[in-house]
Prior knowledge:
Helices cover 42% and strands 14% of the residues. The chain is an alpha/beta fold and 344 residues long. The chain has a single domain (6-343), classed as TIM Barrel (Alpha-Beta Barrel). Helix 3 links the parallel strand 2 (41-44) and strand 3 (90-93). The radius of gyration is 19 Å and the shape is globular. The mean pLDDT is 95.
Amino acid sequence: xxxxxxxxxxxxxxxxxxxxxxxxxxxxxxxxxxxxxxxxxxxxxxxxxxxxxxxxxxxxxxxxxxxxxxxxxxxxxxxxxxxxxxxxxxxxxxxxxxxxxxxxxxxxxxxxxxxxxxxxxxxxxxxxxxxxxxxxxxxxxxxxxxxxxxxxxxxxxxxxxxxxxxxxxxxxxxxxxxxxxxxxxxxxxxxxxxxxxxxxxxxxxxxxxxxxxxxxxxxxxxxxxxxxxxxxxxxxxxxxxxxxxxxxxxxxxxxxxxxxxxxxxxxxxxxxxxxxxxxxxxxxxxxxxxxxxxxxxxxxxxxxxxxxxxxxxxxxxxxxxxxxxxxxxxxxxxxxxxxxxxxx
Length: 344
Ligand code: V47
């Protein structure tokens, strides 16, 4: 299939949902057959105290959520002790931008985990956090990224990308990492031979053209580095935040966006339907609209559940696998770098 341009991609939004889905599904089948990947993972969000004010965020301690916390390393390690004892293979660590803890507090989390459990995959620090740490502690991106590698970070999650269009970005999260900076940090991470993911927050004030623009910028960087494992469109959750969106995005528009992501991002191997923000049911449907990954069991989730997602306690593994199979796909447990571990 020929690579699609901006205008053509935007025009595809007008196509019938099922035709668009059919195209995305044929690409998915060619790449992954009927396999749907997931992993057994645990999210940890060590602090919600944040220097930045993103209008869409319900997680950070603020007027709407006045319960600031910062976990001790002992607390974090006891969570990790527990998950390792249950054979969980990935820990996904993302925090707010807390100016009170010091740089070492962040780095020691990874170092202590990795010293104790070298086999556990540490996916940690979004590019927004990297930018915050660099600015706050007078370091370059290179220095922070090297410190991450030295202290045991294996891969970077895709958070903080939001929407790259500068005008929309300014409106929803002014002052946070810019689009250029976000992409530059991932470029530098990939240059170190490391992998990362990339997200897109949609269903708020952005328009279709902004989503396509977002995908195009990702595709360009991926052409350069090949370092993105996975694209993750995140459906905006409307509760407890300052964006005040009244009209919720439709399932039709979510599925069209999933399908377009699969069609436009021809160089990103995996498309994740993140059940946390789409609901499990729609994520299962999204398997027929290009998605080949459903993230994982998660266990504990604080960022999206603060904004209304029903994800605070993750999903049960057996149930998750059963749902994937019942929906006609083959549940394949993967590691964090998409090596297949087990066909369930
Ligand atoms: O960056 C914040 C988003 C992200 C809201 O890399 C919201 O594998 C919806 O990035 N509604 C954090 N979304 C989560 C994230 C992620 C999740 C799962 C897997 C991976 C991965 C990455 O959550 C933030 C922000 O874009 N977010 N507030 C909200 N109200």
